[in-house]
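Hey, quick one: can you model this chain's 3D structure?
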Amino acid sequence: MAPASKADRKAALDVASWMFNVVTSVGIIMVNKALMATHGYGFATTLTGLHFTATTIMTVVLRCLGYVQPSHLPVPDLIKFVVFANLSIVGMNVSLMWNSVGFYQIAKLCMIPVSCFLEVLFDKVRYSRDTKLSILVVLIGVAVCTITDVSVNAKGLIAATIAVWSTALQQYYVHFLQRKYSLGSFNLLGHTAPVQAASLLLLGPFVDYWLTRQRVDTFNYNIIAVFFIILSCIIAIGTNLSQFICIGRFTAVSFQVLGHMKTILVLVLGFFLFGREGLNLHVVLGMLLAVAGMIWYGNASSKPGGKERRSFSMPSGKSQKDGLLTESGQLDEKV
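Sure thing. Here's the predicted structure for all 335 residues.
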């Protein structure tokens, strides 16, 4: 009876973690779309720096209240993570600017096979045939939904390549650091968020000026725009935290596969809230195909041999806890 209750508890936490990520991620996309499209705030890199500043404040408050225990993350690993994470942010912004929407979406889809490659290379993960096919179905479904015109240029291809690899490495590294140093989501955020906030606030205005030819300090910060910026920062706290929680529980590949559900939700909400693009037949068919692939992936990867990691030893030591949400630290289970 005890194992069943433990499994049920883990399943409930998995669902709650994923729903937390979906709600915050879709929410921040909707708020940022209103901020940028309606109010003309195009300083995406600086805004991300503000997001991590808000996240840093949250981790400091929680540490002062005793919810986050002291932990250690070596400086070299911290620097590597921040480099990957910041390259991901800047790379995605530049890729969106230099590429067509179609090629930008193709590049985002490439993150799944790249994440699979990293897991196979570093974690010795094995995928069954059904798991591989289910991932392919998800990719095809999302591609049908989102890809329109596709045009490629040399600098856009370079930007997309940097964005894809840095994002995949950053997401893999979240899972790796949590396992290696027994870090919970709050602990890892407490180490990485301040460095990301400082670096992005320092470099963000220059990157945004390069991309938009507008200075962030000359923007008209009226009450409505400031409200949306603050709301975006508040939601970003949940988005950053939920990303670390989900990758810690699901691995980067599962996070990417399930993440395409957010793409579908954004399309649907965009239709109802902004009304610019209709849900035509091929978009609806793509959505149905992607959802079917996600269901297949969940079933295939949970079966014995569907997605397994070889056993390997980890440094001994007492696992740390968030104080708010306990995360799995087992390595020899299905992932």
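One thing worth noting: Residues 7-308 form one domain.
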